[in-house]
Design brief:
3 domains; alpha+beta; rod-shaped; 319 residues; ten-stranded antiparallel sheet; 6 helices; binds zinc ion; Glucose Permease (Domain IIA); two-stranded antiparallel ribbon
């Protein structure tokens, strides 16, 4: 039997002779198989390339999103730092209020202890989610910590408020304001070690020097009784008020007095006027707070002390 085959004829359009090619079916099927294989390979690699391209584009987008998110997390972290500073101010104010309300400072200690525990707990929680970025974990821990601390401070403020509400007498007899109105005065020398303005030697300054203009009103910082009203070479004309729980306040270097010895006074009542009597280099009030005979820093007993730290506008004029 003859082998199956095809004949391919090439007929030129000029006088050249006709060419004939004999093709076997095996050759034709082989050529078809190669063509199909090439076509399939082209599709396979084409689709693969497209998928890879797509994946890279997606990856770039995710990377950009990630960068933007990290920027946001960093900005949240910076804001948290500011919040932390404000919270610290609140905690300090809370401790002053507790001291003034004669409450134990345990609130503060408990807060610190609890803060430590919270931190540890939150970190442990953080470790359970390894997928989150350390920065995100830190922000989340800080936020959690701050929220709980805010709750603690709020609770302590409520405790102080209810204690003071219950004990109006205690509140009225506890020094809590500046003896000179803050917009008329500033602190020129604080409590503690300093150089004596006369001898330049180291000394303990047992009060605050509150500068103001000569003749400015000096007010009682709490309800009390005028225990002393006299003049000496150190504090010049000065007044000592007796309050409650062994608390006394001293107002030195006055120009003149506005109350008598033994007189009862109310907080805010004018007791004298700013002067420069005794050992003073400029008109000011030496304000002292004494508890059971020991001089203590009066600053915690002045709620508006932040307003007293900067020099008021009138004092800067002409400088
Ligand atoms: Zn002084």
């Amino acid at each position: 039997m003859r082998k199956k085959h095809m004949t391919l004829m090439v007929i030129p359009h000029n006088e050249d002779r006709v060419r004939e090619f004999g093709l076997s079916w095996a050759l034709i099927w082989g050529a078809c198989a190669i063509l199909i294989f090439c076509f399939a390979a082209l599709i396979y690699y084409g689709v693969g390339y497209y998928v890879r391209l797509n994946r890279e584009a997606k990856f770039a987008t995710i990377e950009a999103e990630n960068r933007a998110l990290m920027e946001q997390v960093r900005s949240v972290d910076a804001n948290l730092l500011k919040l932390r500073q404000r919270m610290n101010d609140l905690v300090t104010r809370d401790q002053q209020l507790r001291q003034m309300a004669d409450l134990p400072p345990e609130g503060g200690e408990a807060q610190k202890g609890m803060a430590g525990r919270l931190n540890g707990a939150a970190l442990a929680e953080g470790r359970e989610t390894p997928a989150s970025h350390p920065m995100v974990q830190k922000v989340s821990v800080d936020l959690d910590h701050l929220l709980r601390e805010a709750d603690l401070v709020k609770g302590s403020f409520q405790e102080v408020a209810s204690k003071l509400d219950k004990d109006i007498d205690l509140r009225n007899h506890t020094p809590s304001v500046s003896p000179v109105r803050p917009f008329e005065a500033w602190i020129s020398s604080s409590f503690g070690s300093r150089r004596d303005p006369f001898t330049s030697e180291r000394e303990m300054h047992l009060g605050l020097d509150i500068c103001s203009r000569m003749g400015t009103k000096v007010m009682a910082t709490a309800d009390g009784v005028v225990a002393e009203r006299r003049e000496d070479s150190k504090f010049g004309k000065h007044i000592v008020l007796s309050h409650t729980r062994g608390l006394e306040t001293l107002y030195g270097h006055l120009m003149r007095f506005a109350v008598e010895a033994g007189q009862k006074v109310k907080r805010g009542q004018v007791i004298g006027y700013v002067g420069q009597t005794g050992r003073a280099t400029a008109p000011h009030v030496h304000y002292g707070v004494r508890q059971n005979g020991r001089w203590i820093n009066p600053l915690p007993y002045i709620l508006e002390k932040n307003e007293l730290t900067s020099r008021p506008a009138f004092a800067n004029r002409g400088r």
